[in-house]
Write a structure and sequence with these properties.
Length: 90
């Protein structure tokens, strides 16, 4: 489990890490607006994009090639980056 704190209040975790088929996230506070989950490869190319309104969610990563990825949660209303973390796909 990786816990990341960013500007603002609250905390964020992603698990498992490393992951093979699914990556899950958990927020300690319900977002005020829907959030966009985006996964980027090491070259900055967007690989996955989903929208969530709850404090937990999961993303299927089985189609990603093994490697390092960046996981971002952005508030859709303001486009503000809430949290970011890195994970390894095995």
């Amino acid at each position: 489990v990786i816990i990341i704190s960013a500007s603002g209040s609250g905390s964020f975790s992603i698990f498992p890490n490393p992951a093979s088929n699914v990556i899950q996230f958990s927020l300690d506070q319900k977002p005020k607006y829907p959030v966009s989950l985006r996964i980027f490869n090491t070259m900055g190319i967007l690989m996955k994009n989903s929208t969530f309104t709850s404090t937990t969610g999961q993303q299927d990563i089985s189609s990603l090639t093994p490697g390092n990825y960046t996981f971002e949660l952005t508030e859709l209303n303001s486009k503000k980056l809430l949290f970011t973390a890195k994970f390894i796909k095995i």
